[in-house]
Amino acid sequence: MNVPEFQEKVFPLRNKLFRFAKRMLDQAEEAEDVVQDAFIRLWNKREKLNEYRSVEALAMITTKNLCLDRIKSRRYPVENIDNHKMFVENLPGEQENDNTEVIHDIHQAIDRLPEIQKMIVHMRDIEGYEFSEIAEVVDMNENAIRVALSRARKRVRDLVLKQNAYAYHGN
Amino acid sequence: MHTTEIEQLLERYFEGETTLAEEQTIRDFMNSPEVPEHLMPYRAMFSAFTAAGRETIHNLGFEPALTAKLSESSGKIIHLPVQRKKFRYIISIAASLLLIAGLFFTYRGELTAPRQPALTASQQIAFDEAAAVLKIVSINFNAGLKQVECVTKIETAMNNVTMFNKFYEYESQIINPDIIINKSPKNK
Fold it and tell me: What separation in angstroms does the CA of B59 have from each of A18, A51, A87, B54?
């Protein structure tokens, strides 16, 4: 596989990998570094890439492992104020009446989930992966994934409902 | 789509039982203008997910830098840099081992050698004198201590005397019972 081929087949994954890494690391810059490293690892395997059933799954697994390595070597928990600042291109004509503050809090709730739940809810609800694809990345069976996903979703729901209750009391 | 159907889907969604297609149905409903008031909180949840899915790498230099790196490698394997933190960890262990070894070799002689160096004649005299003086101080101090013991004896004797005082007090009350009758109920 040469560079243009690699660019065509693997580069399109970059934003997906970036979102996944950022979800796990809470930091955009570090997430970019991880994606860079993940691409280099894939590039080193370029002769064997065609043997893999899914390059995307391999890329996600590589990203996951790089993130876990970084989390392990951290000495202090990262507290970054603008973690949740996102660079999102809004589609034209889209209504933006949802409270950005609420959305910010929802992301914070996801970020506080245990690592496995965070990964699963991200892959399912944000990236729209099938359970079989998630199973490959996190190396768990589908039932266990459903249980973790249910817990994560309920945790986010609890926060949303609580805030809604506050909002009504406030008025 | 009826609200009741959506509610049922939501229930299954939170149990992790919905398929991707069903989840898309919920999402479409939440994006439509007809979301009833009681489902509004969920709308925020799904729009947060949708927004998160659109995030991109903001760094414009990302791709060119990576492409350059890959092109440079020209068929070789690129080695990822060893993480600096791991390296620092090893260095700190090595440094502390060196420090311990250094201390060991510098002070090894002193650990085994006799502690007291030999004294010169004048130093020996000074030492003897000091010892004699200290001995005198010690004897006098002990004598002083004995006198202090006498004082404590006097104190115990005094306590006995106060006992007698109490005895006399009660005796006077027995002779004059009015005092007991008047005093005791009021003074507890």
Answer: 11, 32, 10, 15
CB contact under 8 A, B14 and A153: yes
Chains A & B: contacts with CB separation below 8 Å: 112
Q: Is some CB atom of chain B closer than 8 A to the CB atom of A130?
A: yes
Give dist(CA A4, CA B104) in Å, integer: 60
- Residue B120 half-sphere exposure toward CB, CA atoms < 13 A: 2
Hey, what amino acid is at B148?
A: V
Q: Is A19 on the interface with B (CB under 8 A)?
A: yes
Does A157 contact B45 at a Cβ distance shorter than 8 Å? Answer: yes
State whether B78 and A40 contact (CB < 8 Å): yes
| DSSP state letter for A76 | S
pLDDT tens per residue, range B4-50: 899 999 999 999 999 999 999 999 999 888 888 888 889 888 988 98
Give the ipTM.
Answer: 0.83
Tell me, yes or no, if A28 comes closer than 8 A to chain B by beta carbon: yes
Share of chain B above pLDDT 90, in %: 25
Phi, psi of B120 (to 5 degrees): -80, 170
Interchain contact, B40 vs A160, CB within 8 Å: no
pLDDT digits (tens, 9 = 90+) for A58-112: 999 999 999 999 988 887 666 654 555 555 544 444 445 556 777 888 888 898 8
Count of Cβ atoms closer than 10 Å to residue B35 Cβ: 16
Q: What is the largest CA-CA distance in chain B?
A: 123
